[in-house]
Write a structure and sequence with these properties.
Number of domains: 1
Number of helices: 3
Shape: globular
Number of strands: 5
Structural class: alpha+beta
CATH class: Alpha Beta
CATH architecture: Alpha-Beta Complex
Distance between the termini: 17 Å
Largest sheet: 3 strands, antiparallel
CATH topology: Nucleoside Triphosphate Pyrophosphohydrolase
Mean pLDDT: 92
Order of helices and strands: EEHEEEHH
Strand content: 15-25%
Length: 134
């Protein structure tokens, strides 16, 4: 989810301490967009269906042993920065925050990224974002 000026991105932190875009596993017979909408709603309390497009996404393909894995990130623009978020799951999401798009680390050694220096953590706390930030 991106702010109207496209300068801020919403990410979530799980109880494991890692930051990511809202994500999850597909249910049987669920398409990619419906899975994304459900997961975003469960993890943030925000329904992206009225504002998102099925055609606006980034795919990342990676190889795991003998098979290929596809992760799809739907781009949801124009989410008001003042939106109130309320996770619908228990013990899954510890924190929800807006970060400057240009403040996020792009790789595990990116120690100068503003998000890392402000939080006092390490760039690797954001490793789930890396495939989509490049």
């Amino acid at each position: 989810m991106l702010s109207p000026d496209m300068q801020w991105v919403l990410i979530v932190r799980g109880f494991g301490g890692k930051w990511s875009f809202p994500k999850g596993k597909m249910n049987q017979n669920e398409d990619l967009f419906e899975c994304a909408a459900r997961e975003v709603y469960e993890e943030t309390g925000f329904d992206i269906r009225p504002v998102a497009s099925r055609e606006y996404y980034i795919d990342h393909i990676s190889r795991l042993s003998d098979c290929l894995r596809r992760d799809r990130l739907y781009i949801v623009p124009n989410v008001d920065y003042c939106t109130s978020f309320d996770p619908k799951t228990s013990y899954e999401i510890k924190e929800i925050a807006w970060f400057g798009v240009n403040d996020l680390p792009e790789h595990k050694n990116d120690t100068s990224a503003r998000a890392v220096t402000q939080l006092g953590g390490c760039a690797n706390d954001f490793f789930l974002l890396f495939p989509f930030l490049r």
